[in-house]
Amino acid sequence: MALDSRRSGALVGVAAVAAVLLAWYLLTSVTGFIGPTRFPAPGEVGAALKQIAFDGYADGKLYQHVLQSCKLILMGFAAAVIVGVPLGLAMGFSRRIEAFVNPAFLLLRPIPPLAWIPLAIVWLGLGDAAKILVIWFAAFVPSVINSYTGVRSIDAHLLEAARTLGIQKRRLWLEVLVPGAAPHIFTGLRLSLQAAWTTLVAGELIGALQGLGQVLNVAAQDIYPAMILVGMIFVGLCGGGMTWVLGRIERYAMPWRRA
Amino acid sequence: MAPYPEQAELSGREFWTLSFLGLLMFFGAWSVLALSGLMPSMFLPTPWAVAERAVELTFHPFAGYTIQVHLISSIGRFLLGFGLAAAIGVPLGLAMGWFRWLDAAVTPLLEAVRFVAPIAWVPFAALWFGTGIGGPTLIIFTGAFPPALINAYRGARFVEPRLIEAARTLGAGNWRIIVEVLLPASVPSIVAGLRISAGLGWQSLIGAELIVASSGIGYLMVKGQSSISTTTVMSGMIAIGAVGFAIDVLLRRLQRRIEAASGIGE
Fold it and tell me: How is A99-111 classified by DSSP, letter by letter?
């Protein structure tokens, strides 16, 4: 029952993945138990991947869709972080700013980012600007909340020491508050990034000219399950890839926390 | 005490004055933008126009139904998807916390789909289950399932080992250990996970309804958007926010009660 060694655990994992892949192959290609209009066979997925990579699909080749989606994510995410992190830090440090900003923030916070999509479309149409706005909303809230929590979690002794030693405001921010809040800030960034991807895919599914969501959208309309799966795989790869990069940045930015 | 004057607790009066000023700023800026014509009222209606429209929607059907009926159909889908996620995720999580082989087998599969945003399941959901109840329910499920599972798993993994040893020594089998030891001990973690699940599920529901539904609050907003009725869209946003908030408050209450009962909350 209980497996002691890590190796047998990994073995079970590999076996499970292999079993699922084999079941997929058997159910689709070999027996045809699951029809091609329901779920694609492995060969079809390969063909779809080749088609989108070399010939293009949904008005663009794979790399163009990927670049388009990543570009929008980065723009919306960066804008949210640039506004959200300083706001959260300020709210965490000053009770006055917190009291002033919090009510409006509390009113807007329960509205899920996806619910901003129709409004963004009314305001800005189906172009990039609407998506960047919605991604901004999605990434903004976690940035603010976690930066706020980060400042609040700083050990009061550190702040006392800083004050007693007569630190200037600029250095207080750069050398005490920001590094002190950094672990929470990065947690917020990770959550922001996930929210941003969900929102982007939804936004592109609703209407776009290019992007991974648009690939999904066109593939759904064409009832082309293999291409749907390719789109999903790349949504996962891009989201995972960006999270990995953020993790590297986190390690680099906080050398004192490296194990 | 707070080392810096900025961090000092505000007096009640100062706090409420500032909070009130903040709200006033928010609604003031909104009204001024709307009234001055900087943003045409078609795109940015005044707050009171939105309030009026929200009330009107309760007795004037829009996109087929009144806003309450849309909300009820959304909540029904939500409960179904969320219920399924909890009913599958929690037992599976507990079992993964107990049986190492199950953990080893399921974790890599979950890792493989972890980064696929729930909304990306929309095309398959529509293809497999249609756009009525089944499709949106699958989307809610994919949003709500991971936190339900992960928290049950963590809860089961961090159960006091002495409890398990005691149960074992007294001759409890796997089933009894899971149901009578792991489950009660991980309830706080499970409920915390369900709160996250509910939030993500509700959010995914809105996404699903924006894309593939023929009723529901998201559908109401899409219709409002295509007829450029900004007041309708904003009414929908308010309704979504209010229901999401209510769900969270209910679950938070439940969480507090359970924590108090199990002695964690003190």
Answer: HHHHHHHHHHTTS
